[in-house]
Amino acid sequence: MDIRNSLRDLCPALGNKIYFNYGGQGPLPTPSLEAMTQSWQRIQELGPFTTDVWPFISSETNKTRALLSRMCGVAPHRLALTENVTSGCVLPLWGLPFEAGDRLLISDCEHPGVVAACHELARREHLEVDTLPVQQFRQGREAQQDTDAGVLQALEDSLQPRTKVVVLSHLLWNTGQLMPIPAVAEQLDQHAQQPFLLVDAAQSMGQIPVGAAAQAADIYAFTGHKWACGPEGLGGVALSERILNQANPTLIGWRSLRDETRAVIDDPDPFHHDSRRFEIATSCVPLMAGLRQSLGLLASEANEQQRLQTIQSLSGELYRKLNELPGTTPLLEGEPPAGLVSFQLNDSCSRSTTDIVKILGSKGIWIRNLEEPICLRACTHITTEERELTSFLKALQELTGI
Length: 402
Hints:
Layout: H1 3-9, E1 18-19, H2 30-46, H3 53-72, E2 79-82, H4 85-94, E3 103-107, H5 112-125, E4 128-132, H6 144-158, E5 163-167, H7 181-189, E6 196-200, H8 211-216, E7 219-223, E8 235-239, H9 241-246, H10 286-301, H11 304-324, E9 328-330, E10 340-345, H12 353-362, E11 365-366, E12 368-371, E13 374-379, H13 386-400
Parallel strand pairs: 1-11, 3-4, 3-5, 5-6, 6-7
Antiparallel strand pairs: 2-8, 7-8, 9-10, 10-13, 12-13
């Protein structure tokens, strides 16, 4: 059975366009939308603020936390529910105990939102910021061992005696290269300071197996609205025990508190002692039903490894055809380890990447342009069809004149 067809047929967004923007946001299957609608209806039937509704809300929260914790391979008390990747990264990071002169080591392929948060933290806490060079590693899937060795050597060269936190994505959002997160964590454990490891997993959850990396990282933040094809506004973060022991809550609300029924006056430690200390206040409960439905649909298609193999097969085919197309150069030197395929156009193309995205969009073909480095990015998922690759490449060739 072709595992790409059944889920694809459930996604209205894929019925009228050729879609390669899973790394930005995935399409929402109709059953997931229906699950959210049913959840909203149930809340209204019970009464949005009645004693009858709280068991339902508690059940929805617990089921979602349990599912995401299983996917990450961590105990439920280590999994906080968040609204997005940025809040999952920033809330525990800003709660760590820093001293003036401590250092943050940030890779040169991190998302601007996380980078900005780190620099603002450095300004407020008088920290120093260093750069971990990983954009240079573009070997692709077949040479993953070479990438791993290069990243670990770059890490060794970049660490300072007072490095407190290392920030490194699991799958780089611009080049598509996979980072060896468990090996990085092991190397940091040998450092005298034992720096915390913060991992942006925006491009990981729903696309590649995440358990080993989530277990190894101190902060492993992900979203449900990209490769997991869930609704926007819901994600999670897997936290290490030492984060739970050492980091204080930053943005605080009633969900952070062990006793939400009374104002905190004399209690020196009013917060949950588990991941809930980083949850804040009222969230959209029906989104949880939608995300669980989407994750269930993905799981019903195939297991994590089988889905990744399908994604790699499609991204590999796209990579090879782009590599053969005159005037286009993929960023990676080998086939991508996952579904992100970034490429550049040579100087013979007079159009900007922004214009190319707009014009392709007018033809019903959706990709993305990036600025660091300047390139175009197309993403394949298990819902991608080979005919779409052909249509995209034909339109690209006609548009660029190459």
